[in-house]
Amino acid sequence: MIDPASAVVTSPLLALIAFLGVIILLLFLIAKWRWHVFIALLIPLLLFGLIPGVQTNNFIDAFEKGFGNTLGSIGVVIVLGSIIAEALRHTGAIQTITRTMVSVVGSSRMPLALTLTGFVLGIAIFSDVAYVILNPLVHSAAKAMNVTISVMSIGLVGSLQLTHAIVPPTPGPLAAAALLGADIGKIIIFGAIACLAGSLASWIWGQYIVGPRIKTMASDEFAGEDLFTGEHAPELPGVWSSYAPIALPILLISAQSVSRLFLEQDHFVRAALAYIGWPVAALSAGVWLAYRNIRTDEHRLAAKSKWIEEALRISAMILVVTGLGGSLSEILKGTPAVDTISGFFADYGLPAILLPFVIGIIGNMITGSTTVGVITAAALVAPMLHNLALSPEAAMLAGASGSVIIKYVNSSYFWVCTSLSKLSVNDAILGYGGATLVGGIVSFLAVCVMWVTGLI
Prior knowledge:
Blueprint: H1 12-32, H2 37-48, H3 56-91, H4 93-105, H5 110-121, H6 127-145, H7 149-166, H8 171-180, H9 184-209, H10 239-262, H11 268-276, H12 279-291, H13 297-304, H14 306-333, H15 337-347, H16 354-367, H17 370-381, H18 385-388, H19 392-402, H20 412-421, H21 425-452
Helix pairs in contact: 1-2, 1-15, 2-14, 3-8, 3-12, 3-14, 4-5, 4-10, 5-6, 5-7, 5-9, 6-7, 6-20, 7-9, 7-21, 8-14, 8-17, 8-19, 9-10, 9-21, 10-11, 10-12, 14-17, 16-17, 16-19, 17-19, 19-21
């Protein structure tokens, strides 16, 4: 029930119309008129406050509270994650991680090795950046094995996008977890399980189903280029040094969550993990470990300022969009639209977990951005969690799975992968769009299994 004293709007019909109006206006501003997502989110929110019957003071309070609370819990964490990504990109840790995957799986199984590499790198690196770095290896490996570029790349494209969308500490899932109040440690553990299933499904799609049917071979433009050779190869960091900036924060955050399940509140181990497993502390340790891989004077100079400035630039859009998502969520909590939508699912016996999944799909289709898709799903579903009897973790993982389902011509990631692989648009839609479609559906099914069995 909505408390009339604090409600933004009390009319159920008016609230539902306003809710749908926000979605429709978002669609037109971004998909048709190509406005930036920040302005496209801000304008519907401002117009919401002008609707007759809206309590202005309560609306303003909800806007400011939602924006501030969301950024207060996640802002620093997003920036720290971006700094780790910059350090991994510049110090050669990505190359070392790829080499270890190849050595474990075998050079004769390069498509699978690249898929597993994408599964790891997508946790820390923006998917398009990772693909740009790995692209020379994709072409050289395809040429060496005499297979099509689609066989070599489709699994990688799918796995990079899946972990980028679902597993913290990449910004999208971190922001969604904050909006929903989800336990980040649980998101990491169960999100990784879902992503691994989805990544393997993407690999199967590329290796056996679609890849061999797409006849484009490796490009001569990248002939001879290889991440593992050249003048900088001896300077690559070691295996532990490369994995540690990703692995240690994940282990610390996950350990904090596990300790809450098995240890008493006053247990000294749980008390210690409450601090070192705090995402700000854990990711700060990750930054320190990533910076230990610096080997050159040029990198030492860049690490002091340039890398941090680049991380802040990358984080800025995500931070403001996340803040506006928090405002939207807080405003919707003060309307009867929450009861109306959740009641619809109850009346027709629909599984509650479908709602964030569908909203994630729509958010991604509207914006072309996986990050915005998962944030939109979290912002819209957060006010309904109690009514839907859905855990924050299940809602976040379902929305994130939906946010990768449709990858096509309005996605910058789609164009990065398509242009670098030299595929035609139609082949890329079938290969890369199919990989994220199949991977997202399989990941969602894994989330459903974990939800039904009570794990999340």
